[in-house]
Amino acid sequence: FPRRSMTLSPAWQAFTAEYSLTPEQCEQFRVFDELLARENEIMNLTAITNPHEVLDHHYRDSLALSAAFDCTLLGGIVDVGTGGGFPGIPLKIKYPQLRVVLIEVTLKKCRFLAAAIQTLGLENIELFTEDWRTFLRKTNYPADLICSRASLHPDELLRMFKPSSVYKQAHLVYWGSRHYVPTPEEERFLSHTVPY
User: Fold this and answer.
1) Per the CB 3.0–4.6 Å rule, which of 85, 97, 117, 149 could disulfide with 175?
2) What is the pLDDT along the chain (196 residues), one digit of tens a residue?
3) What values do phi and psi take at 100, rounded to 5?
4) Which of 84, 78, 97, 93 is nearest to 58 (CA)?
């Protein structure tokens, strides 16, 4: 893969130091970044294409989960509406012990994700290509966290807490904008917020 200029930039070096990335993890991020940039020229994986903005708004944003949870102690996460693989793939690169399930229904995005997983040599990461409600009805993955970067409205995500759901004991982590105001129903389930 041709190297994008971001790889050697001070911003990239700061990111590497901030998250104490190993040389292998740095290389995985570099390869993933190249795959993302190349595929984004063919299809719209993300509207963010500037290398420094990808670093901040996708990679750093995904790893911001570590501000709220000790990710080294987590066993499994489910990434709802992962799109281009966020936050699931950056979290898997940084915390290889995680078992990750990526939920994505768009076929072209699923093809990209499958190729990225194979190219990066990631293990214990799985694609679920049906919708969220089907996931809740048909699966029973060991999951500590259900993550969503604003891919579904919170009231839809709260279905995981229904009495019949096998995921009702997991934590729901929702990346919201600074303008997000929970509804009274959502407020009942809110344990805490972490600004970053």
Assistant:
1) 149
2) 334 444 458 889 999 999 999 999 999 999 999 999 999 888 888 877 788 889 999 999 999 999 999 999 999 999 999 999 999 999 999 999 999 999 999 999 999 999 999 999 999 999 999 999 999 999 999 999 999 997 899 999 999 999 999 999 999 999 988 888 889 999 999 998 888 7
3) -120, 135
4) 84
Place of tokens 């700061």: 14
Place of tokens 């281009």: 84
